[in-house]
TrEMBL record:
InterPro entries (alphabetical): Rhodanese-like_dom, Rhodanese-like_dom_sf, Thiosulfate_sulfurtransferase, Thiosulphate_STrfase_CS
Span of domain Rhodanese: 18-126, 157-270
Nuclease keyword on record: no
Protein's name in the database: Sulfurtransferase
SMART domains named among the record's database cross-references: RHOD
The organism's place on the tree of life at top rank: Bacteria
Amino acid sequence: MPSLPMILEPDTLHQHLQDENLLLVDLSGPEHYAEAHIPGAIHVHPRETRGAASPVPGLLPEKAELEQLLGRIGLKPEHHVVAYDDEGGGWAGRFIWLLESVGHRNWSLLNGGRIAWVSEGYPTSTEIPEAPEPTRPALTLDPSTTADLHEVLEAVRAGNTAIWDARAPSEYRGERQSAARSGHIPGAINLEWTRIMDPERNYRLLPEDRLRETLTSLGIEPSKPVITHCQSHHRSGLTYVAARALGYHDVRAYAGSWAEWGNHTETPVE
């Protein structure tokens, strides 16, 4: 199949729905998937992208859990995965991060997701597709996609990394508490994930030039390493993909996010 862009428009996807190596993954809520999904899309519940036993919900699932999930959807190396959800791209972005974390780089985010697809009249289905033949992927984890707590601490000390906090301003300022401590990682730049969406365009990402200008004006620049996070690396799934799609080469997710940092007794907080 032809190469598809990282940020994929609905009309382009519509033209490629029958491509042999296309794998559509829907990360919407189960009720929305049952109500209407893109024909052929396989449902992955958002909670499947999280580790089952971890006290920090945003961390990458264990390797065996990933192998089970990706085997269930029949993932093969030749697949081009198109991920979407019903909320603007957070869960779909997290799933893409998960794919990159196991070395699968052939992916696209459906721009505007289910909202754009349904609102603009593209075909939907209530039929559950036949389960794909399970695969048995032997995964190798790629550490370059993720920053752990100690790496974030080092980035704070070095001061040469843009730490993108995708939470709401009230969380960033410590007015809304969702961990033992409130506030933000020292030096972090707050750009809420919703600010890179355009509700007037069915929650697509901002046009590339506006998105790039918005990031660089805040100091989130392609020349710097970028670490992005939120409370549990759900909202920052979208910000991770946005930076990757803009061509930022050194982008990592702090998967522990504030659920880890804010509950740790020795991490610095502003």
